[in-house]
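Reopening this ticket.

The earlier resolution said the output was attached, but the attachment link was broken on my side. Pasting everything inline this time so it's all in one place.
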Amino acid sequence: MSVDEQRGAPGYVGVDQLDGNVETVVAGSRPQVNSGSGFQIGGDVGVVLISESQGRERRKRARPLSHSAWRREYLSKRFVPPRKFEAAQDALARNGTVFISGADGSGRQSTAEMLLWLRFPDNEVGFRRLTFDNEEDVDERPLDAESVQRGERLLLDLSAETGENVEPLRRDLDTFRAAVEREGAALVVVLPVDFEQLLGDEATNPRVVIERPDGSAVIRSHLLAENIPESVHELDALGESRASEPMRGLERLVARIVQAEERNPEAGFAQWAKSATETVAEYVSKVAGQVKNYSLGQRTTLLAASMVEGAHPDSAHVARHALQTGLGYPQDDGFVLERTGLADALKNIAAGVENGRAIKFESPRYAEAVREYFWSNFPELREHFRDWVGICLAMDELTDADQDRMVARFAVQACRTGRTLDLWVLAERWTAGGGRGTHHRSAVRWAASALGYGLQDDSSLGGASELRRKIYEAASRGEPSEDLARVLVLVCANVMAEEHPEQALVRLRLLAGHPTPDVAETARSAVRDLTSSDRLYRRFLWRMVAWLENPRPADPGLFLLLARADRVSGRGPGSRVLLHSKVIRQQLAACWYRVLPLDESVWRSSVRDWLDAAGTAPHGDLFLDVLVDAARGRLSVLARLHVVARDWAHQHGNEQGARDREVARRLAVRLDRAQEHRLYS
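Inline output:
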């Protein structure tokens, strides 16, 4: 049931229904939508994530996992260490773990990230975020000591968690920290402001209380990173914001300075600062005062123009008409030429047309404030706004770039108001029809971008966690349409995997069983690419042992893809000889144990791959040992391995044939011993 139905809304729910004092405006803080990453499927569909809050519009179609490198570079150019940073570094180096606390706005999150990056400066692999996600197929706790890998970086951010979530961690924390120390890893825990009892005895739990760094130094560092030279910095023009703003606020302040500089480069720093210090909340209040005197037509024109700012003016006209139709408001029956013209309609809401081609407000934050005003103050219309955006995106008047901006603008409001799942609703709609052609490719792109924004929603409202859960449920039930499944593979591999790689792999495993062959193959390829990391390979193999006990149809093939001889023998670029690990050999044997009783056609080529490696790799006997261990004395399996090896060895009559027959002989010796042990035990 919709919000409107729950509240018994009338047939027309209009944006002209304002009650109470319009100066009292709901205006929450606006989360930033960071530039993300994505690779393409089908040659022309990728995850396009843009940000209008970082100074200039940023548009990225980067390669998988590039966000970690981008974030590291971004921080290293701008980070100003808070007070006590060196103490935190020393504690992390000594103990392997450090707990970071401090006041809101002191920079705890960026401090935690920099501590992890600097702990192992030569390691290019990103850090792993520990989450409270509850995967239904694997019973694991957030702090699973077995998951800790050698030399990895771990971040546990509890700053937005409640006592209900944090309290159960106490029983697992000591064991997890011991594993971190044993593996030479690094763990940084960001504590809530008012929940430090998690530590218990502070003598054994190193806690560092950081203090906010100097605001002027932070602003100067950000300005230099944005190529605004120090010679033009007039920080006194920023007033008290340098001393009072939280770190995230200072970052946004610099972004607004950059916006002002790009819009009017000749104005000078003082004018840029004046424009930058006018906050979105102030603009929202200004919008409220103006909307109070607006007619319905002006209000719908204002909202429509704010969503399509930068697009051709015709798009505002069509969007306004769609909004009024969606709200059930009767259209003006008067003669068309009697109505207010489009140019005057835009002028009446303080919008103009730049170069005759693009809608432009007096400030980029004015359009942002308009959107924030309507989404904040009309909660009963949020479903209508969602549906309206879905309709508008199909308008011929919008270019691809206009569409991408509209998806981004809607995503910001959906996440900010706790309606991240609205992004899922639209993604399902956009991918439901199938088809081909330009519109179809665009709809798939919108869906990928919408879900990408939602998965990056790190607000305290838990939107990203909700969306990860929704993707898991859809993939596990086999629900996604062909196009939606493609989108899910894309966002799991390139957005979710940036900071939650294991959750991404769990979902990709489910999508590898999709009935559409090329979708399944794309998911398998994504798993293969992500598990090129030894840490993720180990974790995925650990999970595969459990999955094969009650396998999905695609699981045996997925295991055999991971068990390629070149992957476990270290012949791939930069890979280690995983077979040297006793734990890896045991896990491989446990998986082979489940696969070998299946039809021989399933695994024959993979066994032959291992036999090839047994004849060429210095550690070739380890391949044979794992296969024999996997048989576990089952006579039927031992016999099948013997036949496959015999046939394989007689493929060639040259020198390679002699080598192959020697491998088959060594395997036969092991098989005979296993059979004798089985018969006489």
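Reporter confirms the inline version is readable. The first helix runs from residue 3 to 6. The first strand starts at residue 49 and ends at 51.
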